[in-house]
Design goal:
Layout: E1 2-11, E2 14-24, E3 29-33, H1 40-47, E4 55-60, E5 65-68, H2 80-90, H3 95-108, H4 124-136, E6 142-146, H5 154-171, E7 174-178, E8 191-196, E9 199-203, E10 221-222
Parallel strand pairs: 3-7, 3-8, 5-6, 6-7
Antiparallel strand pairs: 1-2, 1-4, 8-9, 9-10
Helix pairs in contact: 2-3, 2-4, 3-4, 4-5
Bound molecules: adenosine-5'-triphosphate.
Region (Disordered): 204-225
Protein name: ATP-binding cassette domain-containing protein
Domain ABC transporter: 2-222
Length: 225
């Protein structure tokens, strides 16, 4: 369970987040949208424990939280396989299970043939898939996605979004995914939060691309209510 209560955080004089209340329960899949600079990444970093609020509280009792960033952040001096192995070892996976787990996840993101490659030899999309495999292989129960697919082509973006949502459904993990395209979250999330002006508001989940459904609905109720 992730529980934010009256959470506020400022960088300088202006609060980025101001009096946030949010509950995320196991199995919930949440999209986060909002204008650039509104505080979406800050919200995820607070959830991951990388930042602490100035006031209020952020309580994360999910035992395994993983945050996937916009950039892959692979260790450049280790092979793709080693990048996963190191994370799995640090995550407490028993040594005799690491190779099988790593191979299964590299296959799921179609990188089985790139296991021995260096991160510098990968395309942007391949590197991002490796970073995602590294996160999912740890079987997180809270997966935080900070626009990790934004630089990828739309088809791959949709595939990887589906993979995350399927994995979350299969394992009962909670997922929070930032996106600049609300319609991309259709079918992947149960709730959408819009971050703006330091606050979050719940917003209807679109049913598909804008040409397939009505335009995104206006905010209708406060989040956490
Ligand atoms: N470590 C930091 N130090 C100072 N200011 C910061 C820091 N991190 C974020 N900010 C500021 O806080 C605000 C919110 O940043 P954040 O990255 O959370 O926005 P965002 O909604 O994720 O934006 P984008 O959609 O452009 O990624 C911005 O004005 C940013 O400049």
């Amino acid at each position: 369970m992730l529980e934010m209560r009256d959470l506020s955080l400022a960088f300088g004089p202006r609060p980025v987040l101001d009096g946030i209340r949010l509950d995320v329960r196991p199995g919930e899949r949440i999209g986060v949208i909002g204008p650039s600079g509104a505080g979406k990444s800050t919200l995820l970093r607070l959830a991951a424990g990388l930042l602490h609020p100035d006031s209020g509280s952020c309580r994360n009792t999910f035992p395994r939280t993983r945050l996937v960033f916009q950039e892959p952040r692979l260790l450049p001096w280790r092979s793709v396989a080693d990048n996963l192995d190191i994370a799995l070892r640090a995550g407490g996976v028993p040594g005799d299970r690491i190779a099988a787990r790593r191979d299964r996840w590299l296959a799921r993101v179609e990188l089985a043939d790139a296991a021995r490659a260096w991160p510098g030899e990968l395309s942007g999309g391949m590197a991002q898939r490796a970073a995602l495999a590294r996160a999912l292989a740890l079987e997180p129960d809270l997966l935080l996605l900070d626009e990790p697919f934004s630089a990828l082509d739309p088809a791959l973006r949709a595939d990887l979004g589906r993979l995350c949502a399927e994995q979350a459904r299969a394992t009962g993990a909670a997922l929070i995914c930032i996106s600049h395209q609300p319609w991309e979250l259709a079918g992947l999330v149960d709730r959408i939060l819009c971050v703006a002006g330091g606050r979050i508001r719940e917003q209807a989940v679109p049913s598909g691309r804008p040409d397939e459904s009505a335009a995104e609905a206006p905010p209708d109720r406060p989040a956490g209510a």
